[in-house]
Amino acid sequence: MCLTPIQAQEADEGQKFIVHEDMVKPSKIAEYETASKAFSEVLKEHGAVGAEYLAVSLDDMRYLYVSPIDNMAALDSRPVFEALNEALGEEGTKALMSKFDGTYDTHRDYVLNLSNELSYNSGEIVEEGVYFRHFDYHFVYADKETEAKAISKEWKELYTSKNIPQGYRIYTGGLGTEPLIMVVQWAKSAEEFYAQQAKTQEALGDIKDLMDRTMAITRKFESYDGRIRPDLSYQPEAVMAGN
Tell me: the pLDDT tens digits for 63-96? Predict the structure, then answer.
């Protein structure tokens, strides 16, 4: 099963995603993951429809739960919790959620937009076992978003001209985020990714000017490694095609 981009959207606009993010306490990782697995197992047991999400754990102990949405109006619905209430009842859902108590400091929700126009060679992201992810967050100055898009196109043109095999996907920030361009790359492991990255840097050649201009419009830069977590996800194959 694969989710395709919403037909009403333009082809270069890409899929929208709602992301739930938990910042988990270092001492509570095991307890948190036990609760998260119990959460997904209930959905699997009851065959919940329309509640699919992909779980990702990052090396700063953030956990992301990514679900595709048709449009912004979909934010008014809560299909996961509707499915839980139907399966467990209100009290059962509260008991399940209580397993997370005390395991994280903060949590939030926000929207990301996949940009097909700015992404490069991203088809192999859906291959089985390709679970490693590398995230580069470029928090862009508010008055530089147009320039950021133009520079992103230059990066894609450079990768295309050099026929770089290593792909990436670009997500732009939506509701609940600062102006953002997020670059996501993938591999089967961290070792494979960084070996690919070294080859990519060599093939690209001198990128100082383009990199300098990229950082000039970036207010803040953050970089993380992470991993897709099928064990914490519900029907992840339904999300992978768009993520």
Answer: 999 999 887 766 667 778 888 888 889 899 999 9
C-alpha atoms less than 13 angstroms from C-alpha of 228 in its C-beta half-sphere:
26
DSSP state of 125: G
**Cβ-contact 219, 140 below 8 angstroms:** yes
Domains of the chain: 16-109+227-240 (3.30.70.100), 112-225 (3.30.70.100)
What single letter denotes the amino acid at residue 130?
V
**94-103 long-range Cβ contacts below 8 angstroms, 24+ apart:** 96/35, 96/38, 96/39, 96/42, 99/31, 99/34, 99/35, 99/38, 99/39, 100/22, 100/32, 100/35, 100/36, 102/25, 102/28, 103/22, 103/24, 103/25, 103/28, 103/31, 103/32, 103/35
Give the ranges where the chain is alpha helix by DSSP (H): 29-46, 79-97, 145-161, 190-204, 208-216, 237-240
Paired sense of beta strands 132-140 and 104-120, if any: unpaired
- Model pTM above 0.90: no
